[in-house]
């Protein structure tokens, strides 16, 4: 019984874990999630595009095999609202799609904008932890469409 519980726990954990990592090819921090398709690609592109529009993403664009947009979330630190901006790219291939969140930067009204790659290690770790906490919610919002 205990072994079954442990196996089920790890299966559930592996399906929900999205962590931000440095892509060695691009030197950009990103979160990547891959999932399977149940509808044709053109239908999915249209649905993701509509969902991004509903979620107030900016600069939404699409091609025959992808859709992308920009968004942000806020974090209040010491009475000041900080914005964490990111790009969201949904790419389609065969019977799967990949959601990539990348190009993270913080917009601080006091100090300006700075990317995760340009931050000092200590500050970067704190922001990465925040993105790790928020990424599942962001991805779930993107994936949520009533008629899927």
Automatic annotation (TrEMBL):
Keywords (A to Z) from UniProt: Signal
Keyword Signal in annotation: yes
Signal peptide location: 1-19
Full protein name: DUF4468 domain-containing protein
């Amino acid at each position: 019984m205990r072994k079954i519980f442990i196996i089920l726990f790890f299966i559930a954990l592996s399906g929900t874990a999205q962590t931000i990592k440095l892509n060695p090819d691009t030197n950009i921090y990103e979160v990547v999630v891959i999932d399977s398709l149940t509808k044709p690609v053109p239908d999915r592109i249209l649905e993701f595009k509509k969902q991004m529009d509903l979620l107030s993403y900016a600069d939404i664009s699409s091609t025959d095999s992808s859709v992308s947009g920009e968004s942000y979330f806020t974090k209040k630190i010491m009475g000041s609202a900080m914005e964490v901006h990111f790009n969201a790219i949904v790419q389609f291939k065969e019977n799967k799609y990949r959601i990539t969140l990348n190009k993270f930067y913080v917009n601080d009204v006091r100090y300006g904008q700075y990317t995760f790659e340009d931050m000092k290690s200590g500050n970067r770790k704190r922001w990465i932890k925040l993105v790790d906490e928020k990424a599942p919610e962001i991805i779930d919002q993107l994936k949520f469409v009533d008629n899927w």
